[in-house]
Amino acid sequence: MTQIFLSLFPLLALIFGGNILKRTKFLTDGFWSGAEKLNYYLLFPAMLFANLSTATIHLGMIKTIFTVLISILLITCIVLYVIRATQKTDAARFGVYMQSMVRFNTYMGLAIVAALFSQQGMTILAITLAMCIPIVNVLSVLALTRQDNMDAQSILLSVLKNPLIMACVVGIAFNFSGLSLWAGFTDLIKQLAICSLPLGLLCVGAALQFTELKKELWVLFLNTFARLLIMPALAYMVCRFLHLSQLETQVLVLFFALPTASASYILTKVLGGDHQLMAGVISLQTLCSAFTLPLVLLWVM
């Protein structure tokens, strides 16, 4: 428990610090938008490339992780679409529910795995991200789009233009190519990668909007309970059913115990979804994860 607390404290402190800096206006709104853009297009892709390009990747590991991810996401989507059919939920709200279940706060995941599971755990998480990022982006866009407005070409282009997806693809391709980078360029990528996590966690805190928690509390709490407790329990059952190793099970259960991504707010707003509800979901899930993540980690470890 002490190890778990020591691993979670720095990232929770950075998130809390980011929120304080934003609320006190110590840093301007322009700084936060610039920091998010820098991290999304440069620092975070550098981290993904650094991990995937040097990791020891086995095809068996990729197949196993892919099977787990597809199984969990398929079950989740079936349940959500059944609820949508029975409740007649429109795309604006359904897109929020979908993203709150299938998207994940990558910064928190990377920080916890790096602290608890070292390089081997980071490899498992990096492979998981490489597979999951394109899938959940497609699911999110489809859920937010009205059926009569769906355009396969635009959805495909939005996925291909995602810098995180491209970093994963290039990193894995470089890994299997057998090539090596010049030492100076390798050190540069490592320095960029180091900057990504603390800046990303500060931005997560700055993006929290607690004023939105006053609306539809029962929906928010039900959603948060499902995301932070039911999803990791489902992941644990699937991992045990498929006889995954202890480390693979621990990393994947942690992955599905993460709160949803703060970037979900931007996508929801751009595609005309209920962005106020999305802001409330993100804020409550992130806040409650400070209590649920230690419990999930203690249980699975």
UniProtKB/TrEMBL annotation:
<feature type="transmembrane region" description="Helical">
    <location>
        <begin position="64"/>
        <end position="84"/>
    </location>
</feature>
<feature type="transmembrane region" description="Helical">
    <location>
        <begin position="164"/>
        <end position="185"/>
    </location>
</feature>
<keyword id="KW-0812">Transmembrane</keyword>
<dbReference type="GO" id="GO:0055085">
    <property type="term" value="P:transmembrane transport"/>
</dbReference>
<feature type="transmembrane region" description="Helical">
    <location>
        <begin position="96"/>
        <end position="117"/>
    </location>
</feature>
<feature type="transmembrane region" description="Helical">
    <location>
        <begin position="38"/>
        <end position="57"/>
    </location>
</feature>
<feature type="transmembrane region" description="Helical">
    <location>
        <begin position="277"/>
        <end position="300"/>
    </location>
</feature>
<keyword id="KW-1003">Cell membrane</keyword>
<keyword id="KW-0813">Transport</keyword>
<keyword id="KW-0472">Membrane</keyword>
<feature type="transmembrane region" description="Helical">
    <location>
        <begin position="217"/>
        <end position="239"/>
    </location>
</feature>
<feature type="transmembrane region" description="Helical">
    <location>
        <begin position="251"/>
        <end position="271"/>
    </location>
</feature>
<feature type="transmembrane region" description="Helical">
    <location>
        <begin position="124"/>
        <end position="144"/>
    </location>
</feature>
<comment type="similarity">
    <text>Belongs to the auxin efflux carrier (TC 2.A.69) family.</text>
</comment>
<protein>
    <submittedName>
        <fullName>AEC family transporter</fullName>
    </submittedName>
</protein>
<dbReference type="InterPro" id="IPR038770">
    <property type="entry name" value="Na+/solute_symporter_sf"/>
</dbReference>
<keyword id="KW-1133">Transmembrane helix</keyword>
<dbReference type="GO" id="GO:0005886">
    <property type="term" value="C:plasma membrane"/>
</dbReference>
<dbReference type="InterPro" id="IPR004776">
    <property type="entry name" value="Mem_transp_PIN-like"/>
</dbReference>
<dbReference type="Pfam" id="PF03547">
    <property type="entry name" value="Mem_trans"/>
</dbReference>
